[in-house]
Specification:
heterodimer, A: mainly alpha, 9 helices, globular, B: alpha+beta, OB fold (Dihydrolipoamide Acetyltransferase, E2P), 5-stranded mixed beta barrel, 4 helices, about 30% helix
Chain lengths: ~240, ~150
């Protein structure tokens, strides 16, 4: 276990590991996205109240779920970077931020498109939408902070602190619909007890959530590889790897 | 663990804990402002301000919707099963507006307790099901739509 963790911190080993993982992950993710989209958009039944417009759930919810989970990945990488000073953790933190920002943006935009016909408004300052917007700014903030420093170690330190402080927001987003009166409804998928969403609609949704997790991992690994290509372009191991 | 790393780990965790506590206290102090709307019970109890832009949310009372014959004015009652607020609204209602469903109306509360809405948003619940399943449930379990607030789900 610990040797694996130590190996993860070594750029040459990680580069090779990522290459192998991507080779398997890429077709799996594409297949799952395709299957989930076709199942959700064409074969799942329409909703009794919303008709076909609810189908945007198959993009909106997976994007939002993975945007939240991705923030924890970034914060944990930040913690590792802060405490153990492992450079690969900085790389991981930096690679997660744009992917998370993109997913949050997708969740916000699809939410607005969904909100107009169902609620009657593109945008409402309800607790969940507002906290999701803060999440978007946190991701953008980490990206901007990395660019603001010339010294990479100092940049990583500042970003790690920002992402750790920002973790406060994640449980707020998750529980916002239970803690305050908001326009969002409470969660439909329940870990305990029966979900409030019919099984025929739930299974394609779960597949899409899985596919988005895979997509997130894939994009982060590709980002990390690209970063290693930049920072280690002079190293002998990378030259031999690319030959 | 190396004492230096242990120190840094404690410091990092302290940052997380303290910032969580700070945000927690701030949102506790602002809890009234974070709520998107007042439940009708609070309006009836006089907790909602008069002549100020506020939102009221709850279920549209069955059989309370009256549409004007001359213009787009609609009158309906909103309830959270503890209190009832009369709402009037002139304009186009969202697709999901219906009796027995959730709404959030923004507008101004008059001193006599009536509410003049400038915007009505539909609030749907967490239930998703195919039409056939909904039909099968009809009559068996009235009120599956649930109350649109903290208590449902």
């Amino acid at each position: 276990m610990w040797t694996f963790v130590h190996k993860m911190g070594s750029p040459p080993w990680f580069y090779r590991f990522a290459t192998i993982v991507i080779r398997w992950l890429l077709p799996t993710v594409l297949l799952a996205l395709l299957a989930g989209s076709v199942w959700g958009l064409l074969y799942a039944p329409p909703d009794f109240r919303q008709g076909n417009s609810y189908r945007i759930i198959y993009i909106h919810v997976p994007a939002a779920v993975v945007a939240l989970a991705g923030y924890y990945v970034m914060a944990i990488a930040g913690l590792v970077s802060l405490v153990w000073k492992i450079k690969m953790a900085d790389t991981a933190m930096r690679a997660v931020a744009p992917v998370g920002a993109a997913l949050t943006f997708v969740a916000l935009v699809t939410g607005a498109i969904w909100g107009k016909p169902t609620w009657g408004a593109w945008w409402v300052w309800d607790a969940r939408i507002t906290s999701m917007l803060i999440l978007f700014f946190l991701y953008l903030g980490v990206m901007a902070l990395f660019e603001a420093y010339d010294d990479k170690a100092a940049a990583a330190k500042a970003c790690a602190v920002l992402s750790l402080v920002g973790t406060v927001n994640i449980p707020i987003i998750y529980k916002s619909v239970d803690w305050w009166y908001s326009l969002h409804q409470p969660a439909s998928i329940k870990f305990t007890g029966e979900s409030a969403i019919d099984a025929s609609m739930l299974y394609p949704l779960l597949l899409m959530i899985g596919a988005f997790y895979g997509l997130f991992a894939l994009l982060v690994l590709l980002n990390m590889k690209a970063e290693l290509l930049g920072t280690h372009r002079q190293s002998a191991w990378l030259r031999s790897e690319l030959r | 663990m190396h004492p230096k790393r242990k120190q840094r780990l404690t410091l990092a965790l302290l940052v997380v804990v303290l910032s969580s506590a700070a945000v927690g206290l701030v949102s506790y102090a602002l809890r009234g402002n974070i709520n998107l709307f007042y439940p009708p019970a609070d309006v009836v109890a006089g907790k909602a301000p008069i002549d100020r832009a506020i939102r009221v949310g709850g279920m549209v009372v069955e059989g309370s919707v009256q549409r004007s014959e001359h213009d787009l004015t609609t009158r309906f009652a909103v309830t959270d099963y503890d209190g009832v607020v009369e709402v009037s609204y002139t304009g186009i209602l969202p697709d999901l507006f219906a009796e027995g469903e959730g709404v959030v109306a923004s507008g101004v509360l008059a001193a006599d307790g009536s509410f003049r809405a400038t915007e009505v948003l539909a609030k749907h619940d967490e239930n998703y099901m195919p039409p056939e399943v909904a039909e099968a449930l009809q009559g068996k379990a009235p009120g599956t739509a649930g109350y649109p607030g903290k208590d449902s789900g």
